[in-house]
């Protein structure tokens, strides 16, 4: 989509590293000139470097994480004591809706995508993602969706029908005004971003791996992101359809009734569409986290991972089974009882591939010499927390139990044990692990341990009592309760834990702020890791690798000898050129010129964002937006003086060997 030319491989060769060593300084200077980041504000808007875009995703997602955390803290203050009046019912509805929406759509998925967009190209040994301009557009679409949600919230027209927005509660009869409309258009913008990132990851991994990195040598984290990307492609259109149909039902100028039973619609249709996305969404968040774990454990166990093939197959099996679970969110609805039994079986069956991963991780640690650095400590915390979340998940897979605790705080506790324990704990481990690659400096080890201890204690103090509250009948999404219920003590305990978690996050921010400036200097591979992102300086140059290397094993920095590993020579130093390889065995295929930095992705995201915002008020915004988007696309794809596309070359035996 963003390429400008394919070129033959007649001048591409694989040579010994000694033949290229003396040219490295000159080569670095030429590549830096070609791949350098543009300057100024306009340059920032145009920058298509995958590392910068990945960092933007991560930082922006953490900003939204902080905002959602403040909303959660306010809710915990409201529920700390009975009959509290800190938040009224309307404001509380907005708080829990925006909190849940932020965590699911503006933090959990985007932060995982941001990590992948930074590290996947480095781990497969290429210089940028397959479609750099489209990648930049995806970030701006994500940002536009977030600004749409919080802009409406700041104007007191924030979404208030829950992060799932079930009709008829979210329909025009029970939710007048434009609150739900802002939510539905935000969903569309963020899911466009997710789909863009998924396409980037799949194309980059399948077609831009370094020579020798066959499918059975791809790092496990990269495999996790490939599975996640395919899940996004199949899951996200369902929620986009659900939110789009809901928006059409709500428009006064459009007379649709998809979810209006009085006019032949069906409210359960919305739930099916939403949860066909919603349950895979849990694994879209969880599978990247398992990729972090599979990547970190071998490094700190000081041995190759145990069970590479079972781990890959477990990731794929999890991705498939995740699409067969959605009705277990609907056990309280009039779905046929026989049908519920099949979804109960699938809900229990998905524990099998997750259990395989757990045993492989434990076996890797058992057979190694673990070094209990901060990243590994976060991983061990994840195993403990996620086991509790998994056990309560098996409980909720049972129809009789689910009916008793449905819409209670038991479900709130389970949900957070799965998503915070299953995603945020590994994410923090990955941040402590890769922070030296981002900045060239370590995060403080002592502050990292304090961060973990406070977060671990605060998390369990906050969410474990919610299991008991749910069993005692406290329903979710209530803004207050009377003292006679007896829920006050456990709620006060949960609110105290939220304070501890807040202190832990402040400690983390202080650690990042201090370490980025004065932290201990890290070399190119300070952890003595085995994957290719550590084969480049820390932080990496704009072009990632001066010479692409070949790989001959799954752990190239541990097993492949630097003296005998061939390097790729012949890629252009005058244009942004990457090597495209074959799908299965990663043999060199052709050279591929990437498009330059451009302002058009930003302008396209602006047009799309304004179009969907206008669609909240009148359907005429859609054709107008399409017209303006068409004009931007013409300018986006305008060739100008860029090289014309050449015919696909024949790959010579020497280049493919």
How would you describe what is shown here?
Helices cover 62% and strands 4% of the residues. Helix 9 packs parallel to helix 12 (351-366). A 3-stranded antiparallel beta sheet has the order 1-5-4, with no helix packed on it. Strands 2-3 form a two-stranded antiparallel ribbon. The protein has 21 helices and 5 strands. The chain has helices at residues 18-21, 24-35, 40-46, 50-79, 89-124, 132-154, 179-207, 220-250, 267-301, 308-321, 337-349, 351-366, 374-396, 399-405, 409-439, 445-471, 488-518, 556-559, 600-615, 621-636, 653-656, and strands at 3-7, 13-15, 567-569, 577-581, 588-594. The two termini are 29 Å apart. It has 657 residues and is mostly helical. The longest helix has 36 residues, at 89-124.
Explain the layout of strands and helices.
Blueprint lengths: L2 E5 L5 E3 L2 H4 L2 H12 L4 H7 L3 H30 L9 H36 L7 H23 L24 H29 L12 H31 L16 H35 L6 H14 L15 H13 L1 H16 L7 H23 L2 H7 L3 H31 L5 H27 L16 H31 L37 H4 L7 E3 L7 E5 L6 E7 L5 H16 L5 H16 L16 H4 L1
Antiparallel strand pairs: 1-5, 2-3, 4-5
Quick summary:
By secondary structure, the chain is mainly alpha-helical. The chain is built from 21 helices and five strands. The protein has helices spanning 18-21, 24-35, 40-46, 50-79, 89-124, 132-154, 179-207, 220-250, 267-301, 308-321, 337-349, 351-366, 374-396, 399-405, 409-439, 445-471, 488-518, 556-559, 600-615, 621-636, 653-656; strands at 3-7, 13-15, 567-569, 577-581, 588-594.
């Amino acid at each position: 989509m963003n390429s400008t030319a394919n070129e033959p491989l007649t001048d591409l060769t694989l040579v010994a590293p000694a033949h290229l060593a003396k040219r490295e300084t000159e080569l670095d200077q030429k590549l830096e000139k070609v791949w350098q980041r543009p300057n100024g504000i306009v340059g920032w808007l145009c920058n298509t470097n995958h590392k910068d875009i990945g960092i933007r995703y991560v930082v922006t997602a953490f900003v939204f994480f902080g905002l959602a955390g403040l909303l959660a803290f306010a809710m915990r203050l409201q529920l700390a004591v009975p009959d509290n009046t800190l938040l009224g019912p309307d404001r509380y509805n907005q708080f829990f809706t925006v909190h849940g929406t932020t965590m699911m759509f503006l933090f959990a998925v985007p932060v995982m995508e941001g990590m992948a967009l930074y590290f996947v190209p480095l781990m497969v040994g290429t210089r940028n993602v397959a479609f750099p301009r489209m990648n930049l557009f995806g970030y701006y679409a994500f940002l536009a969706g977030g600004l749409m949600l919080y802009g409406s919230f700041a104007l007191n027209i924030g979404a208030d029908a829950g992060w799932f927005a079930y009709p008829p509660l979210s329909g025009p009869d029970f939710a007048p005004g434009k609150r739900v409309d802002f939510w539905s258009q935000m969903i569309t913008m963020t899911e466009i971003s997710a789909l863009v990132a998924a396409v980037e990851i799949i194309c980059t991994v399948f077609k831009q791996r370094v020579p020798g990195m066959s499918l059975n040598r791809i790092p496990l984290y990269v495999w996790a992101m490939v599975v996640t990307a395919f899940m996004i492609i199949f899951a996200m259109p369902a929620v986009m359809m659900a939110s789009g149909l809901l928006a059409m039902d709500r428009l006064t100028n459009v007379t649709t009734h998809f979810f209006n039973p009085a006019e032949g619609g069906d409210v359960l249709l919305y739930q099916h569409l939403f949860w066909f996305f919603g349950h895979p969404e849990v694994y879209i968040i969880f599978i990247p986290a398992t990729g972090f774990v599979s990547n970190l454990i071998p490094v700190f166990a000081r041995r190759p991972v145990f069970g590479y093939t079972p781990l890959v197959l477990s990731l794929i099996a999890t991705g498939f089974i995740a699409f067969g679970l959605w009705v277990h969110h609907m056990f309280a609805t009039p779905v046929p009882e026989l049908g519920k039994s099949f979804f109960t079986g699938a809900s229990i069956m998905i524990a099998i591939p997750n259990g395989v991963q757990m045993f492989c991780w434990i076996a890797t640690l058992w057979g190694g010499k673990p070094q209990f650095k901060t990243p590994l400590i976060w991983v061990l915390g994840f195993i403990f927390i996620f086991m509790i979340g998994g056990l309560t998940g098996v409980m909720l897979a049972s129809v009789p139990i689910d009916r008793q605790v449905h819409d209670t705080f038991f479900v709130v506790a389970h949900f957070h044990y799965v998503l915070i324990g299953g995603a945020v704990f590994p994410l923090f481990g990955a941040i402590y692990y890769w922070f030296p690659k981002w900045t060239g400096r370590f995060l403080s080890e002592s502050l990292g341990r304090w961060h973990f201890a406070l977060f671990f204690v605060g998390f369990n103090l906050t969410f474990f009592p919610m299991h008991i509250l749910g069993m005692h009948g406290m329903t979710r999404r209530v803004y207050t309760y009377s003292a006679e219920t007896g829920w006050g003590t456990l709620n006060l305990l949960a609110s105290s834990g939220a304070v501890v978690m807040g202190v832990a996050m402040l400690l983390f921010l202080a650690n990042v702020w201090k370490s980025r400036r004065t932290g201990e200097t890290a070399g190119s591979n300070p952890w003595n890791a085995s994957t290719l992102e550590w084969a480049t300086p820390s932080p990496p140059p704009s072009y990632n690798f001066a010479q692409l290397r070949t790989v001959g094993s799954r752990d190239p920095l541990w097993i492949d000898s630097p003296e005998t590993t061939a390097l790729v020579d012949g890629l252009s130093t005058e244009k942004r050129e990457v090597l495209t390889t074959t799908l299965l065995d990663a043999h060199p295929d052709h050279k591929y010129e990437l498009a330059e930095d451009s302002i058009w992705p930003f302008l396209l995201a602006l047009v799309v964002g304004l179009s969907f915002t206008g669609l909240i008020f009148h359907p005429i915004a859609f054709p107008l937006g399409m017209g303006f988007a068409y004009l931007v696309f013409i300018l986006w794809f305008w060739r100008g003086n860029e090289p014309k596309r050449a015919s696909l070359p024949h790959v010579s035996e020497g280049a493919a060997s």
